[in-house]
Amino acid sequence: MNPTRAEPDDDFLLLVGVLPSPLQEAVRGLTPGEVLEVVMDLGRPPEARLVQGSVRLREEPVAQADLEHVLAQVGPPGEDNRAGIERTLHRVSAIRNRKGRVVGLTLRVGRAVFGTIDMLKDLIASGRNVLLLGRPGVGKTTKLREVARVLADDLRKRVMVVDTSNEIGGDGDIPHPGIGHARRMQVSRPDRQHDVMIEAVENHMPEAIIVDEIGTSAEATAARTIAERGVQLVATAHGNTLENLVLNPTLSDLVGGVHTVTLSDEEARRRNTQKTVSERKAPPTFDLVVQMVGRDEVLVHLNTAEAVDRLLAGSEVGGERRLLTGGEVRVEAVPHAGAPLPPPRSKAAPAAPAAPPGPLRLFAHGVSRDLMDRVLRELKVETRVVGRLESADLILTLRSRANDPKMRRVVERTGARVEMVKRNSSAELRRVLRGVFMLVEGVDEEQVREAVAEAEHAIQRVLNEGVSVALAPRPPRLRKLQHRLVSRYHLETVSLGSEPLRHLVLYPLGAEVEAAFHESEAEGTA
Ligand SMILES: Nc1ncnc2c1ncn2[C@@H]1O[C@H](COP(=O)(O)OP(=O)(O)OP(=O)(O)O)[C@@H](O)[C@H]1O
């Protein structure tokens, strides 16, 4: 049996079937493709969580008998408090009280989604190790399942899925067709995942290994062992962004690990830094990191080593944004900025051998090349000025030439970013390029770092917890920088208060924000 696009709906009915009958009726009334989870908490009305928001399934609260009804269908949850429904991809997770009795259930709809990794296919096919990051529920497991199928069926590799909670290959001993011909190893207890990862390499000669949720240092070590044996590893890890991972002492090893080193006075002067700095310790286990911003939007770090080095040097990491819209994949370069990377300090900490994605490629369209070169030198940003429109990641165009049909055609094809300058003056070029590279004039680097770190932390909280978060008061330039960072995640921001206490507040997606408050920083007028 091959999975088809229609199959999830048939599978969906199997999940509906384990619910008490009044709830079955309510869930059947919903559009299957929009249901992500059914949530049943003792003493509260049951709910369905949808792609957009959630709905109550009935007013009457969930009773113990309702929970027992579901558990009788799916069997007792394992040590990870999860149970499955045989030959489906659904997952039922239990919440227990202090005495061990189940008082809540989350029934997650699992789906095999064909084509969901179209925007990552080249990365997967490259044979390099890929780590997927993203907030819970963003669709990491669904992508990983399709990675297994594509590697096994389309690229004809010997693939082994290490399936700790049977989430990738589904419940039961025969894997779900969603993983294609990939083989699957079940894991008896979650704390054995690292053993099974090693067992997979030693006993079954795989060319690729797929693992969901690397979360412990034993698993990080197993991942390194697999990578050292030349087996391709595609995995997910706890953590939403590369920054989270680097700051996580247990998992930072996946991206090379971090240690603190003390520089000589001369070296510190040369780099213009403090004497004690954080540096990457080793080559990363994963060559590429894919940060899932949404189901159909990712930020790819094509060279983990370089991205981590930039992060530790306090610079913008940049990357490649990929978007799937109407079946088309659009790729845009996200420029990185800040000080150039320090050279490797000694042979003990070499840079990873992976091919670097290179600096941002810039094309001057109607803009004086000499002037642009001069401003770029002055701003000390790392770019390569290219001679062909087709090779550019970023096109700097004179406003009067912005509608040039040839340029528009190229942009449509390459997805290059276009920035406009009103006139050929160095002040204007400086203004635009500063915006592109997020350079902030008149504030010291430490303040910039702090404002960026604060905004990133808040973004994660808003995305994970769905709450609004107020940032500390900042001067207008830093608020503008924070606003720009937040807007990449399509979150709402407003500025509140008056100077010097004016500050940004971040709101979750879709929150109703009073239009009158809308952030003027967006237009750069603050
Ligand atoms: N491309 C997609 N199309 C339709 N549904 C999807 C898609 N991606 C994910 N989903 C649905 O969204 C929900 C969450 O997906 P998934 O379990 O893959 O997320 P996750 O990031 O692995 O979450 P967690 O970290 O909590 O395990 C599931 O109900 C899944 O079926």
Low-pLDDT sequence parts:
1-8, 339-356, 513-526
Number of contiguous helices:
15
Q: What is the percent of helical residues?
A: 25-40%
Q: Main beta sheet, described?
A: 9 strands, mixed
Strand order of the largest sheet: 9-8-10-11-7-14-15-16-17
Coarse structural class: alpha/beta
Radius of gyration: 25 Å
CATH class of the largest domain reads: Alpha Beta
Topology, number of strands: 24
First-to-last CA distance: 59 Å
Number of domains: 4
- Average pLDDT, all residues: 84
CATH topology of the largest domain: Rossmann fold
Shape type:
globular
The CATH homologous superfamily of the largest domain is named P-loop containing nucleotide triphosphate hydrolases
Bound molecules: adenosine-5'-triphosphate
Strand percent estimate: 15-25%
CATH architecture of the largest domain: 3-Layer(aba) Sandwich
Distinctive features:
526 residues; alpha/beta; Beta-Lactamase; Rossmann fold; six-stranded antiparallel β-sheet; 15 helices; 30% helix; 24% strand; globular; disordered C terminus; binds adenosine-5'-triphosphate; nucleotide-binding; nucleic acid binding; ATP-binding
Compact overview of the structure:
By secondary structure, this protein is an alpha/beta fold. 30% of the residues lie in helices and 24% in strands. The strands form five sheets. A nine-stranded mixed beta sheet has the order 9-8-10-11-7-14-15-16-17, with helices on both faces. The chain has a six-stranded antiparallel beta sheet with strand order 3-2-1-6-5-4, covered by helices on one side.
